[in-house]
Design a protein that fits this description.
single chain; 482 residues; mainly alpha; 17 helices; 72% helix
């Protein structure tokens, strides 16, 4: 039975830790589930086709995967020198210092909170539609979101391996039905070649295509958050990062290409624009039958639930790490004595998500066009900035560090420590610039709203950086990890 050490920060005993024996497969399941593959294929892909670069949109997934692979090279190389869980902020702190690390931590909390809120909104409306489809009553979207919140909170409170098993089953089901659709479409022939034609790739609005493609990868970078609960983390975390990214990228590229092929290069843009939310279900109905379409509708809801559970786990572990360091109240750094989970941080995260849902409901916000669109767009900007900051941190860390750290020899390979992270930084900066330029379009065309949401992200980063810099003249800025 896993155990958690209690917080004895002031007694000289070891700080609280999480426990577990997650292997590569378990971590991969959780981060791929966070990417919500069926949700992206059903929602993000049709929008990318309709608003982005049309029939060549599958190529955009390949481009983004290449950029993120460059990011992952440095991310994996440095993971051996970051012994604590914490993902982005642990890396940024090691490379750029405690002040930048604290800013990255607060920004990451805001970013993952935004994407989780987006998924809660979408899940509520999907659940209501599913219930009505089978003859049930119409109920407010936020009521169904609250039901999902309760289930996520219960599983998040328990041991991490329980969550990974639930996510694994749900993930296999949703991937299986999409792969079945892909196989049937490919078997029919008449396959699209737009994704290999440069003129098609640059047609339409490739900038918007990049935005939708990047949003599909949200969550893959969270492998490092589970480091404290991983088995042999020096090997497990880098391996899980590469496997997750390649699986997500390959799945999205194949499935979006098959969807384009099913409708044809000339008709697919019109079909996606006419009904982006129902395009994939209509394709499944046509190719696999009504029973498969009904099953896919149920699996779409479970896909959203899997994403919610995974992001809850990530946020709880961010809270735990910040609690143990003192950046947030130390009570958040308590580990459950029996489940080995960050139970206090998990309960706090559930309560904060509930408060945000209540606020959205009280304001009468639409769950899709406002909650989902605004929050997912905001999260995309936050993650791109954090990834770019991490690439810069990797480069700075390896240029400054020559002696072994934590008993581990420093990587001196130019490709792993400078070249790949540098190219990844350039690619991520380009993606961020395109996302910022198209951000008003993503949230309904309001420049003022786009500026407000962007200011919230900047404010969260500054909330960590500015006070830390101000305290530099006093006894030093405490690090976020020990």
């Amino acid at each position: 039975m896993a155990t958690a050490q209690q917080d004895t920060h002031h007694t000289g005993a070891p700080p609280p830790t999480l426990t577990g024996s997650l292997g590569t497969g378990s971590i991969v399941f959780m981060v791929v589930a966070a990417a919500a593959p069926l949700t992206v294929v059903s929602g993000g892909v049709p929008l990318g086709i309709a608003l982005g670069n049309g029939a060549a949109f599958p190529a955009t997934f390949v481009i983004c995967c290449a950029v993120l692979l460059l990011f992952s090279v440095g991310y994996a190389a440095m993971s051996r020198h970051v012994p604590q869980a914490g993902a982005f902020f642990s890396y940024v702190q090691q490379g750029l210092g405690p002040a930048a690390g604290r800013g990255a931590a607060y920004l990451a909390l805001a970013t993952y909170t935004a994407v989780q809120l987006a998924v809660y909104g979408y899940a509520g409306t999907v659940a209501d539609g599913l219930v009505q489809h089978y003859g049930g009553p119409h109920l407010p979207w936020w009521l169904w979101s609250a039901v999902a919140l309760a289930a996520v909170g219960l599983l998040g409170y328990r041991h991490i391996e329980l969550s990974s098993k639930v996510l694994g089953v749900l993930l296999l089901c949703e991937v299986a039905i999409v792969l079945a659709l892909d196989v049937v479409i490919v078997a029919h022939g008449h396959l699209s070649t737009a994704l290999v034609r440069p003129a098609e790739i640059t047609s339409g609005s490739p900038g918007l295509g990049i935005v939708f493609a990047v949003a599909g990868y949200l969550g893959f970078e969270a492998t490092a958050v589970f480091r404290s609960e991983a088995r042999d983390p020096e090997r497990t975390v880098p391996r899980a990062t590469y496997v997750s990214l390649l699986l997500i990228g390959g799945f999205y590229t194949l499935s979006s290409w098959a969807l384009v092929s099913a409708w044809g290069d000339r008709r697919v843009v019109a079909a996606a624009g006419a009904d982006p939310g129902g395009m994939v279900l209509a394709t499944i109905d046509r190719e696999l039958g009504t029973a498969a379409a009904d099953t896919a509708q149920v699996l779409l809801l479970t896909s959203l639930f899997a994403a919610l559970l995974s992001f809850h786990n990530v946020l709880a572990r961010y809270g735990f790490s910040l609690g143990t360091s003192g950046a947030l109240p130390r009570t958040l750094g308590a580990g459950h004595p029996r489940h080995g989970s960050p139970h206090t941080a998990s309960l706090t995260q559930t309560a904060s998500a509930g408060a945000l849902l209540a606020l959205c409901a009280a304001l009468g916000m639409d769950p899709v066009t406002q909650v989902f669109a605004w929050m997912s767009g905001t999260a995309t900007l936050g993650v791109l900035f954090l990834m770019g900051l991490t690439c810069l941190s990797v480069i700075v860390f390896f240029r400054r560090t020559r002696c072994p750290r934590h008993g581990v020899a420093v990587d001196t390979r130019l490709w792993h420590t400078t070249a790949a992270p540098g190219m990844g930084l350039v690619g991520l900066a380009a993606c961020l610039a395109l996302s910022v330029a198209n951000f008003p379009t993503l949230i309904g065309g309001s420049t003022a709203l786009a500026a407000t949401l962007g200011a919230v992200l900047v404010g969260c980063f500054a909330l960590g950086v500015v006070p830390a810099l101000a305290r530099r003249r006093t006894p030093g800025v405490p690090r976020l990890t020990d």
